[in-house]
Amino acid sequence: MAGWRATDIPDQTGRTAVVTGSNSGIGYVTARELARRGARVVLACRSEARGTAAVERLVGEVPGAEVEFAGLDLGDLASVRQFAATYEQGHRQLDLLINNAGVMALPQGRTADGFETQFGVNHLGHFALTGLLLPVLLGTADARVVTVSSGMHAMSNIDITDLNSERKYGRWTAYARSKTAGLLFTHELARRLAAIGSDIVAVAAHPGYAATNLQTAGPKLEGRRAAESFMSIGNRVFAQSAEAGALPTLYAATAPDVRPDSFTGPGILGWRGSPAKSWRAPWALNDRAAERLWEESERLTGVAYEGLKR
Q1: If we measure between CA atoms, which residue out of 32, 106, 24, 41 comes closest to residue 62?
Q2: Cα dihedral sign for 294, 296, 27, 98?
Q3: Under CATH, to which class is 10-301 assigned?
């Protein structure tokens, strides 16, 4: 794993990948590098304008790349259902599902379905998407599901009695909880897949501190110019590039030695560097918490993972 680079990605010819939030940042780099190695890639993005522009840019960087845009708003379960239905109609396989899209430290808000925005987009949207695409994943040999979390999950465990932060809202606490939820989802998904003997590999990854627009989106939305400037300076001075930040995701998605329920991040203090095994908080490996979150996620989204019952 030491020194692993994008050039080490195995040949992906004949494989199909869906990358959520792939119009910019580490999602775009992930999609580009998979396409560079021969994968057919679906850029699943909320904005059609930004998504189609990303497709054009990617084809310009990787001539001959087989890529397409598909609309997906993870903050709207109707959109998630529409994406999954359309995908199943047009594709017979799904080798890689990269649950990359996310929002960070936003002011308190609600999704189209009434969920706290960060929990709704970062966790519930991807939970529903994965469940709805499960039939095609199960029908594809050696498929993988990679959920992008964050080292900042260590700031807070989930509160199973207040998943939508209705009692008290803190933008960073809500973000951390949504990323803990992603790790618990991966933990339980890996366990349930193993229980039925499936060869799908469910794993998690995180980019460390990578320079993307994720850090500035919240302050910009609220008009907090000082905070936006502070984040921008941090991106320039301390963060690694989006190219480097995408490496843990790419490793988790393609390296032959990746084990189910692993968590990959940058090797230098979880901050930057080549992909390595990443530390995670003990609560992110709690079997009972993972089971309860799964049950609540099925109830909230209305998406039942048929065939993966406990």
Answers
A1: 32
A2: positive
A3: alpha beta
